Amino acid sequence: MSSPKQAAAVETKLTGGHRACAGCAFPIAIKEVLSSCKYPVVVVNATGCMEVTTTIFPFTAWKVPFLHNAFENSAATCSGIEGAYQSLKKQGKIDKNIKFVAFGGDGGTYDIGLQSLSGAMERGHDMMYVCYNNEAYMNTGVQRSSATPRGSSTTTAPAGKVINGKQQNPKDLTEIMVAHNIPYVAQTTVGMWPDATKKFEKAFEITGAKFVNIYSPCIPGWGIETSQTIKLSKLVVDTCMWPIYEVENGKYKINYKPATKLPVTEFYKTQARFKALLKDEAQIKLIQDWVDAKWARLQLMEEATNKA
Amino acid sequence: MEKTIAARTGNEAMAEAMRQINPDVCAAYPITPATEIMQIFAGFVNDGKVKTNLITVESEHSAMSACVGSAASGARTMTATSSQGLAYMHEILFIAAGIRLPIVLAEVNRNISAPINIHCDHSDTMAERDSGWIQLFSENPQEAYDAMIMAPRIAEHKDVSLPIMVTTDGFIISHGMERIELYPDAEVQKFVGEYKAPYNVLDVDHPITVGSIVLQDYTFEFKKAQHEAMKNAKRVILEVGREFAKTFGKEYGLIEAYKCDDADYITISLGSTAGTTKTAVEELRAEGIKAGLIKIRSFRPFPAEEIAAILSKAKAVAVLDRSESMSNQAGPVATEVKNGLYDAGMKVPLASYIYGLGGREIFIEDIKDVYKELKNIADGKSKPEQAKYIGLKV
Question: What is the CATH number of domain B255-389?
Answer without folding.
Answer: 3.40.50.920
